[in-house]
């Protein structure tokens, strides 16, 4: 990990000022919405909805064909 | 005090203010919010296909947007493009440098990119009459650890020189350079809306960047070692990181902080790779100990294991249709599971 030189340090301070200024939302809202979002997608997730995994492209469909 | 000392003091002060601002919005925990959610079932996956053909350690894999083809990179000096449904190799692309560390495929399926200790990113057109090198992107001062296409004309790279870069593939020149990490950049992931991307580095931080103006918008701390792998939630509002500190973390972009952690006292192997199921409920994480653990992202519980590789799992990927997961290993094999 290199030490920063002067111009880099100035840029780092500017960057931190910018990062401080962003608006942060309360986690009670953001986490709740994230959990809701994920739960809403679970029925479309083949790993969690076995119905969807029936169309499994990596499983042999029919019997072997003798070439 | 010299100017440097003043600046350092200012930087430390700003970091403390950022932590205070994060604390101020941290009014709940994932455990509390997810307490009403049913636990994910135990996930027992079968190895449906093993793709054999590489002769040395596999370092990268990337699914095509068509959910069927895949590119893999190995230090045997080859990129292989697979039809995973048949197990056939569609193309074999010899690399100028065999010290490859990553590969990626464009959403169109027309281009693949690879790079590594040669410090370059080589872009190949695989749909030409025979695979042909389109560009050699040569400006990084360190190894190429990761790359992702935005389109056939734009590519993001992460490098051991601590920067990430957006390249214009029509000119072969750098469009934007993302500078702020103080350690090697190891991985990157693009947001679903393609306005931002997140990078993970050996300085133990993940940084969210504005793709167009190059500014670092947010810095996520908490890991105590290199971040090797990173993935965006399909919602675009959270990311998962995997680290040499043996843990994974979920960072909420809107609350600007860590909201969940995935670790096990028994696990003392670093995380090498990470990928999410299509809903984001399951995290597939590859580890140094030859296994892949499957985590319930909400309950932070392990719900499954993929074991079958004889060496480190170095890369992992779920195709866009979410129908399976592929693991790539130093044992030279790729395995598809569902």
UniProtKB/TrEMBL annotation, chain A:
Record's Pfam families?
A: G-gamma
GO BP terms in the entry? phospholipase C-activating G protein-coupled receptor signaling pathway; sensory perception of taste
| Gene Ontology MF terms in the entry | G-protein beta-subunit binding
Report domain G protein gamma positions: 2-67
InterPro entries reported for this sequence: G-protein_gamma-like_dom, GGL_sf, GNG13
Return the PROSITE patterns for the record: G_PROTEIN_GAMMA
Supply the name of the protein. G protein gamma domain-containing protein
What organism is the protein native to?
A: Coregonus suidteri
From TrEMBL, chain B:
Whereabouts are the WD repeats? 51-92, 137-177, 178-219, 220-261, 306-338
Q: Which GO terms describe its biological process?
A: signal transduction
Pfam families registered for this protein in UniProt: WD40_Gbeta (PF25391)
InterPro entries associated with the record: G-protein_beta_1-5 (IPR016346), WD40/YVTN_repeat-like_dom_sf (IPR015943), WD40_G-protein_beta-like (IPR001632), WD40_PAC1 (IPR020472), WD40_repeat_CS (IPR019775), WD40_repeat_dom_sf (IPR036322), WD40_rpt (IPR001680)
Per UniProt, the keywords (alphabetical) are: Repeat, Transducer, WD repeat
Database matches in Gene3D superfamilies: YVTN repeat-like/Quinoprotein amine dehydrogenase
List, alphabetically, the PANTHER family matched. GUANINE NUCLEOTIDE-BINDING PROTEIN BETA G PROTEIN BETA
Identify its protein family. Belongs to the WD repeat G protein beta family.
Can you say what this protein is called? Guanine nucleotide-binding protein G(I)/G(S)/G(T) subunit beta-3-like
